[in-house]
Amino acid sequence: MKIIVCSKEVIDPALNLDFGLSNSVIFKEGPPLKLNPSDAAALSIALTLKSADGTAEITVVSIGPPRVEHYLRNALALGADKAIRIWDDDFDGLSPYRKAVLLSGIVTLSGADLVLTGAKSLDTGSGQVGQLIAGRLGWPCVYTVTNIELESDGVILLKDTGRGEREKVACKLPVVAAIKGEGKLPYASLDRYIESKYSEITSLSPIDLGISPIELKKDPAPVTRLIYPRPSPVKAPPLDSSLPAFYRILQLLEGGIVKRKGRMLEGSSDEVAEKLFQLFLEEGVLKGAAGKNDAGKR
């Protein structure tokens, strides 16, 4: 099995803006960068699959200038077999579609049958690259995957469906999996780390992938901006004009907040248990149909 892990560098969100006041490095070299957390999770899953299947081969791919080789060498030190960097001086603000064109070219060239990408990146957060790669290759794509298990005829992917729920998806290879989460990568041994400093990293251009500059300039699905869902506005109650401005602002801020009220249940232990049971039914904590049957028995 051949696995491709797509990696990307992003700005470290833990940046302390006060740092630049006492140290000018941030203004000379730019903000600190790190490996995208979901891409680190993808690499962690790939390393686990390789330990389970000794014949698996991991290729880590990154689109970026020479500085991204730092992450590629760390991946080699951790156990990846190959590292590829894609770059061209004409690259400027690549869109998700253009990235998918380049990465799908690598997949076709290497003959991989499992592609792992991050579900979202910390900077743009478009969450489209994995799906676009699968669309170009004609492969299935499973989004927000948190774990992968090998099967005799494919893989079992554990998918996060939200609200704490998980779903197992059985899929035959080839497949693209968009990984969700923050991977905790192991520490590389000193020998592997030193060896990775001298390992060869293949550098490819779009021409090497068989992609013409004209094709790369096409973008049928440009992303103009991202708008995330916002809660529905709540009509504010009329304000008391006799109050000072400070209290009117507090009254305005509390307009959409429904304060929870406590309830005191009194009676014997059986009566309190019955009242508590009915309260759970009213609040929707217990299912109505099952609750009514149980209530009749009680």
Walk me through what this model shows.
The chain is an alpha/beta fold and 298 residues long. It has a single domain, classed as 3-Layer(aba) Sandwich (Rossmann fold). 35% of the residues lie in helices and 21% in strands. It has helices at 19-22, 25-29, 37-52, 69-78, 96-110, 129-137, 190-196, 213-217, 245-253, 269-283, 288-297, and strands at residues 2-7, 9-11, 33-35, 57-63, 82-86, 114-118, 141-151, 154-162, 165-171, 175-179, 202-204. The protein has a 9-stranded mixed sheet, sandwiched between helices. Mean pLDDT is 83; it is low at 289-298.
Low-pLDDT runs of 5+ residues are 289-298
CATH C-level label: Alpha Beta
Main beta sheet strand tally, sense and closure: 9 strands, mixed
Secondary-structure content class? alpha/beta
Classify the fold: give the CATH topology.
Rossmann fold
What are the main properties of this structure?
single chain, 298 residues, alpha/beta, Rossmann fold, nine-stranded mixed beta sheet, two-stranded antiparallel ribbon, 11 helices, 11 strands, 21% strand, extended, disordered C terminus
